[in-house]
Amino acid sequence: MPTPTSPREPFWHPASHLAWQLPRALSPWLTDQGSLTARLISHSDDQFAVKLLRQGWARTHTSELRLLGVNAKHKMLVREVVLQGRGESWVFARSLIPYSSLNGKLKALRNLDNRPLGALLFQDPDMTREPIEIAAISAHNQYVDGDYLNNEDGQVWGRRSLFRLQGNPLLVSEVFLPAFVASL
């Protein structure tokens, strides 16, 4: 069984290993291979926004480095946002982009600000996505700021995937917050 390498790192598993225990309403959202941004825009009746929490060069978790195929000395752009629907915080998203991936057309990834990364990813016909991993994340895990985890059962569900744009890797993790689950 995988183990986290820091208190903030969730236990990530292949989606197929957890399919039987996923919440019924959330399962299609966790396992969908398409654009989460497009689905959220539709689900929110076009009342969608991206709130940038932080973006900058930072250290990452061991399992993230492993998926990206880089070592701990590699510079990593970390972007954390909250995707909002109908004025509520629905999804916490964490994107990791190795410095070596920020070349050519991908330089634009440095300056997304409040624009959704998903819109850029899914408009590239050469983009590839590796299989989704899923985690049940405890409110005590600290992967997501506790202010967004105001649910009674103390657990949220997240997914992550490695994408490749022009052959360059980037990792996107998305955690579905209690307000989103309540909207289903």
TrEMBL record:
E.C. number: 4.1.3.40
Keyword hit for Transferase: no
Catalytic activity: chorismate = 4-hydroxybenzoate + pyruvate
Record-level GO cellular component terms: cytosol
Pfam families: Chor_lyase
GO molecular function: chorismate lyase activity
Subcellular location: Cytoplasm
GO biological process, one term: ubiquinone biosynthetic process
EC supergroup of this enzyme: lyase
SUPFAM superfamilies per UniProt: Chorismate lyase-like
Keyword list, A-Z: Cytoplasm, Lyase, Pyruvate, Ubiquinone biosynthesis
Pathway annotation: Cofactor biosynthesis; ubiquinone biosynthesis
Amino-acid positions noted as binding substrate in the UniProt annotation, renumbered to this chain: 79, 117, 174
Major subcellular location class: cytoplasm
Role according to the record: Removes the pyruvyl group from chorismate, with concomitant aromatization of the ring, to provide 4-hydroxybenzoate (4HB) for the ubiquinone pathway.
Entry protein name: Probable chorismate pyruvate-lyase
Organism (species): Simiduia agarivorans (strain DSM 21679 / JCM 13881 / BCRC 17597 / SA1)
Lineage: Bacteria, Pseudomonadati, Pseudomonadota, Gammaproteobacteria, Cellvibrionales
